Prior knowledge:
- By secondary structure, the protein is mostly helical.
- It folds into 2 domains: 3-129, no CATH class; 148-383, MetI-like fold (Orthogonal Bundle), CATH 1.10.3720.10.
- Helix content is 76%, strand content 1%.
- Strands 1-2 form a two-stranded antiparallel sheet.
- Strand 1 (377-378) and strand 2 (382-383) form a beta hairpin.
- The longest helix has 59 residues, at 3-61.
Amino acid sequence: MTNQEVLLTDSTEVDFESIEASSRKARSETIIRLLRYTGLRLLALFLTVAAGVYITVLVANMGGYVDEIRRGQIREGIILEKSVDQQFMQLDQEERNRIIAQEIEIEERQLGLDQPFVIRSFRYLTNALTLNLGFSEQLSSDSGSRRVSNIILERLPSTLVLFGTANLILFFISLFSGLSLSRSYGSFMDKLVLAMAPTSSAPGWFYGLFLILIFAGLLSFLPFGGMVDAPPPDNPFDYGLSLLKHMILPVTATLISSIFLTIYNWRTFFLIYSSEDYVDMAKAKGLTDRMIERRYILRPTMPNIVTSFALMLIVLWTGAIILETVFNWPGAGQLYFAAIGVYDIPVILANTVVYAYLLALTVFLLDFIYALVDPRVRVGEGSKN
């Protein structure tokens, strides 16, 4: 082997070693960047959740005013209970006042009302963030359990069934209808959807009232509300049919309140991306419309589609408070409404914490999903054009 060949071999080995070292360094920097970004992102989201939950604690308790209501209820309940006790009523007034004050003190200590509200508010916050939800003060599950987790878990399936069905139908109808309208810009259907978009300014329960009046009150085709017939059918098939029958009106109300505006939004997205230069170039190359839509229109809109779908999933867990109340649907929304009505802070906090954690988790995962569906996005570095 000549000297020149030896030098070439050595230089080649050096190049490979330097390339491998650079590659290892780049991987290490990427991992460090991801870990740093993940830690900072999780910390920021946790602080946001904590702030939102603490504000909920203050609002739900009205800055301590609800405690005064509870003290009054405790005092009134004990006095009423003792007023029917004949032995108690035979005691002198001073002794009766002492016994009443003692029982009031015991009851307030059990509820933690003997401590300042500021201290208890942070205890509420700690318990809520650690999902130590405790027991409800006023509400209970159908089985009689006062544990907050049991109450929520009992109501969540009903909400998921109703709003899962409604929002999935809404999502896919809007997606494909918007894509179809983007091909026929200015057509009669396009103008009709544009004209009907303002109908989404009214919430679903507003349309639900008219649907109940027409189809349940006047025509008697469908039930006024509830989840299934009473008593519930024993046969699973009949139970499913009863469930579907009761879902028709609330699902229809949800669709009417959102579908036209959602279709219009997707149609606008698709129109924006279909007017890009690379789409015109694809048409000039002779690619089919289907291929252009799939590669050059749908793919760039994937981040928007993923965001809408993820936020839609969050809505499934919260439901719609007034809509569920109008249709007497036993879900998480109706539970939240009932908890607000009786100042049941543990249940109110539980609903808020579940929503806050799900929203924070969704926002956190969206950053990584964007990086998967859009190669221009690099986690922790923004986007590269």
